[in-house]
Write a structure and sequence with these properties.
Metallo-beta-lactamase, Chain A; Rossmann fold; 453 residues; binds zinc ion; 22 strands; alpha/beta
């Protein structure tokens, strides 16, 4: 069996992997790099050698997994693409939004090839999408039972899965992005632990040790306590969030805290347009995808205003107001980036980070900045002086490195393939896994090379 890493570098970029077994070629995910632009933002499809693939499995609808799906499907227009119903519904929103973003980037970044695909193309894609339930095996080849796949709840975002491929009497399990603990909205992953020969594993948090005594619940309490204190001071609070996943988690968390009395008094709340759209999709999928608080309608659980890109420049920065806007990494041209200078330069304001940021992203720069220090938020503009308070919380949608290590320890696969991590994160797993899986071969798949697994 062969495995090819189509991602262009060892990083969390345009995640895309080819699995070849016998005559069957299966593509796993097809993401777009969250920071790169142009051809470097896409997987290297030239590695498919013009031979396409027979089937594709999409684990979830985050941009770094779904963003280049239309380009992948051009390589194999007749191949079925398997995913959960929730992933399909959210991918549709994400891909149409991506067309809009690329149309803006075409002018702003001078990229004549953008958008890389059109709204019409996205509309047509759904003909090849096959919606599958968790725990129900399906065929990936024409020959019944020869190559099958089964999806398992990954507990990461709504609809997220890990994919178990069975072929040649062996089992290959690709974790996708996973969380082994309950979040506010998502339930912990339910992953298989037996008879896995090859484990393809994400390594996002390999470089992030978990502090002694840390629990999700205590971190949620710390966040709500800090937010209450900021609101009591009358502060405007920027919480940069991913539109998909973190926005819904945050709404569920705020709702729960208001209900329990942990968060008191009224406050203004703004959410971004894409975040609101995905929140509405999440509400529509109630009862049809695993989650906690199954009856809760997130879009109407508390008063909130929706703000779009065009309104952002005029948006007032108000006291006692939470701005839960994307992107989580404050990427240029996003709502959180546009709002950032006014928040950062305001000594009364607070900026609260709740998830992962690439150290090279504007959010990464803010997090590393000193009080009064200069931060580059937008390369085309002057740096801003950071006078606001910056707080950091770990409400990650990804498994801790210890959680992933523990999972590998239970599985004891013959081979472990490390993906979806920056080099220090991958390096940590490459060092630690042999201690808990002494018989496993640990592989860091070089981008662009085909390896035997
Ligand atoms: Zn993800
Ligand atoms: Zn990812």
């Amino acid at each position: 069996m062969k495995f090819t890493n189509l991602t262009r570098a060892e990083e969390i970029g345009a995640n895309c992997y080819l699995l070849e077994t016998g005559n069957t070629r299966v593509l796993l995910d097809s993401g777009m790099h969250p920071r790169a632009a142009g051809p470097l933002a896409t997987p290297d499809f030239s590695l498919l050698g013009g031979r396409g693939f027979d089937a594709m499995v999409l684990t979830h609808a985050h941009q770094d997994h779904v963003g280049c799906l239309p380009l992948a499907m051009r390589q194999a227009p007749d191949a079925p693409v398997f995913m959960t119903e929730a992933t399909a519904a959210i991918s549709d929103v994400m891909l149409h939004n991506s067309v809009n973003v690329m149309m803006r980037q075409r002018e702003e970044l001078g990229l004549p090839d953008y958008p890389l695909f059109s709204h019409r193309e996205v509309e047509r894609l759904a003909d090849q999408w096959r919606l599958v339930d968790l725990g129900r095996p399906f065929d990936l080849s024409d020959e019944s039972g020869a190559v099958t796949c089964e999806l398992f709840d990954a507990g990461h975002i709504l609809g997220s899965t890990g994919a178990l491929v069975r072929a040649e009497g062996r089992c290959i399990f690709y974790t996708g992005d996973v969380n082994f603990e309950d979040q506010t909205l998502m339930r912990a992953a339910k992953f298989p632990e037996e008879n896995i020969d090859v484990l393809i594993m994400e390594t996002t948090r390999g470089d992030s040790p978990v502090p002694e005594g840390f629990t999700r619940k205590s971190e949620e309490e710390r966040f709500i306590g800090a937010l209450q204190a900021a609101l009591d001071e009358g502060a405007p609070v920027l919480v940069p969030v991913f539109a998909l996943g973190k926005t819904q988690e945050l709404l569920a968390l705020l709702h729960g805290a208001r209900k329990s009395g942990a968060l008191r008094g009224g406050f203004g709340l703004y959410v971004g347009g894409l975040g609101a759209k995905i929140t509405a999709t999440t509400d529509n999928l109630r009862g049809r995808a695993p989650r906690r608080h199954g009856d809760l309608k997130l879009a109407t659980c508390m008063p909130m205003e929706v703000v779009g890109g065009r309104d952002m420049a005029q948006l007032p920065v108000l006291p006692r107001t939470v701005y839960a806007v994307s992107s989580g990494m404050m990427t240029e041209n996003t709502l959180s980036n546009m709002l950032a200078p006014r928040i950062l330069e305001d000594p009364k304001a607070h900026c609260m980070f709740v998830g992962y940021s690439d150290p090279e992203s504007p959010a990464g720069h803010v997090r590393a900045s000193a009080d009064g220090g200069e931060v580059v938020i937008d390369r085309r503009r002057h740096p801003v002086k950071r006078r606001c308070r910056v707080d950091q919380f770990t409400l990650s949608a990804h498994a801790t490195r210890d959680g992933l290590l523990d999972y590998a320890r239970k599985v004891q696969p013959a081979k472990i393939v490390l993906v979806h991590g920056d080099p220090p994160a991958v390096g940590w797993f490459a060092r630690e896994l042999p201690k808990v899986c002494p018989r496993s071969e640990v592989i860091v798949p070089p981008p662009g090379q085909t390896i035997e697994v």
